[in-house]
Amino acid sequence: MANKHTIVLMQTSQNRATRTFMDYDSISQAMDGICGLYERKLKEINPATRNITYDIADLYNFIDGLADMSALVYDHTIQAFLPYDRQWIKQKVFQHLKKLAH
């Protein structure tokens, strides 16, 4: 998963003006970025709470609650970006968090 340029495309609401992207040097960094996005949202909702915890189901609900989320991952062998959907992102974020826990 290292050194695979990854662009996360997302739209937070039905309003097309909420479309944005986040650019990362690797899939792992992209998964960190998605977790960070969710953690910032939790802090925004719960400003008085010092330590915020969540489980994978909460993170999945956040991802599913977005109007759209997908990823483009650069494949060096074909010199092109390959598209991946929300389910792939959820699978990768789970694997990423599992690796961090060990």
From TrEMBL:
Family annotation (InterPro entries): EHR_sf, ERH
Keywords: Cell cycle
SUPFAM superfamilies the UniProt entry points to: ERH-like
Pfam families: ER
Highest taxon of source: Eukaryota
Protein family per UniProt: Belongs to the E(R) family.
PANTHER family: ENHANCER OF RUDIMENTARY ERH, ENHANCER OF RUDIMENTARY HOMOLOG
Cited function: May have a role in the cell cycle.
Name of the protein described by the UniProt record: Enhancer of rudimentary homolog
Name of the gene: LOC111299423
